[in-house]
């Protein structure tokens, strides 16, 4: 049962291009604000694949769980399926903020599913992104150049979006994100 006296928490969607440091920013935000709940996504890739903490499952199990209503949101990108477990609604109902790495293309759906949606758009200068992507060793320079040349789609109307530059030191990006999410009351 939802307590009407509790202000619902915010669903904080973290978006940005590959290599921008979304996971690093999210990890540091949770370290700075332990009450902030980081949503563990369900992804159709092997659990040992590295990167973020996630629950890896098969495409067949993902499809069954999606059909059973196990996800508050789910989508396909880059040949994989991603899901936000529906239990996030319980976190928000308790008044806690929940933080999740989300596909920019899902923001319209996320806004409908989570009226308290706030977006952290993590950015970095193109040369910084190129260097980070090259350091991963997953793509060649040509692929990286094509990735960086793609224009990002516009944000849906009506969203609260805070842009956070993560071109430099992580602590500066985290401080900017914390200030955007938890402004000091004067």
From TrEMBL:
Binding residue positions for ATP: 16-23
Q: Alphabetically list the UniProt keywords.
A: ATP-binding, Kinase, Nucleotide-binding, Transferase
User: What EC numbers are recorded for this enzyme?
Assistant: 2.7.4.23
Positions of the Guanylate kinase-like domain: 9-182
Signal peptide annotation = none
**Can the keyword Chloroplast be found in this entry's annotation?**
no
GO MF terms here are: ATP binding; ribose 1,5-bisphosphate phosphokinase activity
- Gene Ontology terms: biological process: 5-phosphoribose 1-diphosphate biosynthetic process; organic phosphonate metabolic process
Q: What class of enzyme is it?
A: transferase
- Name the PROSITE patterns on file: GUANYLATE_KINASE_2
Q: Which InterPro entries is this protein grouped with?
A: GK/Ca_channel_bsu, Guanylate_kin-like_dom, P-loop_NTPase, PhnN
Reactions catalysed, semicolon-separated, are: alpha-D-ribose 1,5-bisphosphate + ATP = 5-phospho-alpha-D-ribose 1-diphosphate + ADP
The pathway to which it is assigned is: Metabolic intermediate biosynthesis; 5-phospho-alpha-D-ribose 1-diphosphate biosynthesis; 5-phospho-alpha-D-ribose 1-diphosphate from D-ribose 5-phosphate (route II): step 3/3
Task: Tell me its family.
Answer: Belongs to the ribose 1,5-bisphosphokinase family.
- Which function does this protein serve? Catalyzes the phosphorylation of ribose 1,5-bisphosphate to 5-phospho-D-ribosyl alpha-1-diphosphate (PRPP).
- HAMAP family on file: PhnN
- Name of the protein in its database record: Ribose 1,5-bisphosphate phosphokinase PhnN
């Amino acid at each position: 049962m939802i307590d009407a006296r509790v202000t619902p928490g915010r669903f904080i969607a973290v978006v940005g291009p590959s290599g921008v440091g979304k996971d690093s920013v999210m990890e540091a935000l949770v370290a700075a604000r332990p009450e902030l709940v980081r949503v563990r996504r369900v992804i159709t890739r092997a659990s040992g694949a590295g990167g973020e903490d996630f629950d890896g499952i098969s495409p067949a199990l993902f499809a069954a769980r999606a059909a059973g209503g196990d996800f508050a949101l789910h989508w396909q990108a880059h040949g994989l399926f991603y899901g936000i477990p529906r239990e996030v609604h319980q976190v928000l109902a308790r008044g806690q903020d929940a933080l999740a790495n989300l596909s920019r293309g899902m923001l319209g759906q996320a806004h409908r599913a989570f009226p308290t949606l706030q977006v952290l758009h993590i950015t970095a200068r193109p040369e910084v992104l190129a260097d980070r992507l090259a350091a991963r060793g997953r793509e060649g320079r040509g692929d990286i150049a094509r990735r960086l040349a793609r224009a990002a789609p516009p944000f849906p109307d009506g969203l609260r979006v805070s842009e956070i530059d993560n071109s430099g030191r992580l602590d500066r990006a985290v401080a900017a994100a914390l200030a955007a999410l938890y402004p000091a009351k004067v």
